[in-house]
Write a structure and sequence with these properties.
The structure holds 2 protein chains of 2 kinds. In chain A, 75% of the residues lie in helices and 0% in strands. By secondary structure, chain A is mostly helical. In chain A, 35% of the residues are buried. By secondary structure, chain B is an alpha/beta fold. In chain B, the strands form 2 sheets. Chain B has a 6-stranded mixed β-sheet with strand order 6-7-8-3-9-10, sandwiched between helices. In chain B, strands 2-1-4-5 form a 4-stranded antiparallel β-sheet, with helices on one face. In chain B, helix 10 packs antiparallel against helix 11. Classes of the chains: A mainly alpha, B alpha/beta.
Chain lengths: 282, 301
């Protein structure tokens, strides 16, 4: 279990825990290595491979400090967050019922699964050009690509989760007089819930990866290929920093995406733990 | 956990002078056959099998592992239909699962996402019978199975023995006419198993509902049964019917000393040995273990 899994025990226990300090030490060592590596040219007379080209964490930190006071950065973060939430919620709303229907009905599964399996391996980013053509606004195309990122993972998890429910639960429920709807509501739904949460947690991570790439490809703001008013977002922010040659800003942008993804997964895990109290360790 | 188990299950039960009147249904299985697979690949699991589970009696079915006992349970419970033959409950043919015949499964089939109390109340709620009377009955059952303090725990937080007791309560709240138990104490450690057997015997003595109990343990069979059905190797038929007329309530110590019980055991073991040999010829590991245990027993004599 990750250190995050210990949060429900309370922040105090978490901070005094061994795992917490291990994490702190690891991050400090990593930052030190990075700092020294970035300054290697000045310190040792030659640049370390890779890290030698990266701005040092101290300048990145300074940049982050500047950015958090900059409303346009927050606007980019806001745009990406909205797209992630739109795509993710759409994936939840469409993916869960579809997955359940595929798990419950053999006929529907037979019809839809081959189609689903053909589309599933297509990387969401391969959809970007097509999405820009098919959807009326750029905003919708980005949201659509984001949706795809989470959709397939959620559907596959729901089907797998429903399949793995012990057949004896259905037999027991039926012999105790359950109706089909009752079995669906009280056996299938709670039985699938843990898989839905896993799918959603993995899915939202993919969503962040996809939204950023989609924003880079489709361009942002008035500079976008479609010339619309939409665009922007953290992906565009990073791309823009690259075009503008601000390397500290690139790294700061990357870190902000990392943090955003971490927070999303943490929130989902927390919601998940709250929804499935029977899985808690006693 | 373990100490609690012992304290709860060894609570003294007053010896009953008058046994309650037997209740429940009578089940008649007639010429039932069941095969799995199609045509040339069909495997016959049950072949023209006939027996009767009598009203208010505890009928124990015993046979070599993998002989089709669980198939018969699924047929009687109505989860599956026989290929041929008839199964009737009080002369009405079985057409599907019903609340009159409840199955307590091997291992545990408690719903992991429900607390002990919600599991027990599942049946009444499914049938929209969540009345004050049934809630009172649920309380009484919780008390009886010693799980009152564990009503809000999830199955994963209960010990193996507690899970089986919760499952017994979950069935009993539906007042089934027939209780079907498929190796209910399998997988428990020896001590817990013995306690559960004593516990279950007391519960049975109290309610006296028709019970169909499947096991592979001959001592368990003799301790609990009014009648033992010894099954043949696959395809299953009844090899012998042995009535066990030992007085109730029974005590393990008395049974060990009882000549009658030992005579039954030797006869049953002899028959099971023959069946296990056939099964062994088919390469069953369980049969090999059984023969091993049997030969040790015989050499002691």
């Amino acid at each position: 279990m990750s250190a995050l899994g210990k949060w429900p025990m309370g922040a105090a226990t978490f901070i005094t825990g061994e795992d917490f300090w291990r994490g702190v030490v690891a991050i400090i060592i990593f930052l030190l290595f990075w700092e020294v590596g970035s300054r290697s040219e000045a310190l040792f007379g030659f640049a370390f491979p890779w890290v030698g080209q990266v701005p040092p964490p101290s300048s990145v930190l300074k940049e982050i400090y500047r950015l958090i006071q900059d409303p346009s950065f927050w606007h980019s973060a806001y745009l990406s967050t909205v797209r992630v939430l739109e795509g993710f919620l759409a994936a939840i709303v469409v993916g869960i019922p579809l997955g359940l229907a595929m798990a419950v009905s053999r006929t529907f599964y037979g019809i839809s699964f081959p189609v689903f399996e053909v589309f599933r391996p297509i990387p969401p980013l391969a959809w970007v050009p097509a999405a820009i053509i098919f959807w009326p606004t750029q905003e919708l195309s980005i949201a659509f690509v984001t949706f795809l990122g989470a959709f397939f993972t959620i559907v596959i998890n729901v089907i797998g989760g429903a399949r793995s429910i012990d057949v004896r639960y259905f037999q027991a429920a039926r012999s105790m007089g359950s109706s089909t709807f009752d079995i669906f509501r009280r056996i299938i739904l709670p039985g699938v819930l843990p898989s839905i949460i896993v799918g959603a947690t993995v899915g939202i991570g993919i969503t962040w990866a996809v939204v950023v790439a989609a924003e880079m490809i489709s361009g942002g703001g008035s500079a976008g290929s479609m010339g619309g008013a939409a665009g922007g977002g953290l992906g565009f922010f990073i791309w823009n920093s690259y075009v503008g040659g601000s390397y500290t800003q690139i790294v700061a942008g990357m870190i902000s995406i990392g943090i955003a993804g971490y927070i999303s997964s943490a929130v989902l895990r927390k919601i998940g733990a709250w929804m499935t109290p029977w899985l808690a360790e006693c | 956990m373990t100490t609690k188990n012992i304290v709860q299950t060894q609570a003294p039960y007053p010896a009953r002078s008058v046994l309650p009147t037997p209740v429940g249904s009578q089940i008649v299985v007639q010429n039932v056959s069941k095969s799995y697979g199609a045509d040339a690949f069909a495997k016959e699991v049950v072949r023209s099998c006939s027996f009767t589970i009598e009203r208010g009696k505890l009928t124990v079915m015993i046979g070599p592992s993998g002989c089709g006992k669980s198939t018969l349970i699924r047929l009687v419970a109505g989860f599956e239909r026989p290929g041929s033959g008839t199964i009737t409950v009080d002369e009405k043919p079985v057409t599907g699962p019903g609340v009159d015949r409840l199955v307590v499964f091997q291992e545990t089939a408690l719903f992991p996402w429900m607390t002990t109390y919600d599991n027990i109340m599942y049946g009444p709620r499914a049938r929209r019978e969540d009345t004050p009377e049934i809630r009172e009955f649920a309380e009484a059952l919780l008390q009886k199975v010693g799980l009152s303090a564990f009503r809000k725990k999830y199955p994963s937080q209960l010990s193996g023995g507690m899970q089986r007791r919760a499952e017994l309560a979950r069935s009993m709240i539906n007042r089934p006419n027939v209780m079907i138990l498929d190796e209910p104490f399998r997988g428990l450690d020896a001590m817990t198993k013995r306690l559960m057997q004593e516990y279950y015997a007391n519960l049975y003595d109290e309610f006296r509902r028709t019970t169909f109990f499947v096991t592979t343990d001959i001592d368990e069979a003799i301790y609990l049964a009014d009648r033992i059905l010894i099954m043949t190797n696959i395809p299953t038929q009844v090899r012998a019917v042995i009535d066990v007329n030992l007085p109730r309530p029974r005590h393990v110590e008395n049974i060990i000393e009882s000549d009658e019980a030992n005579a039954i055991k030797m006869r049953a073991l002899g028959l099971l040995h023959e069946e296990a040999m056939k099964s062994f010829a088919r390469g069953s590991k369980a049969a090999a273990d059984f023969i091993d245990a049997y030969s040790k027993r015989m050499s002691k004599k």
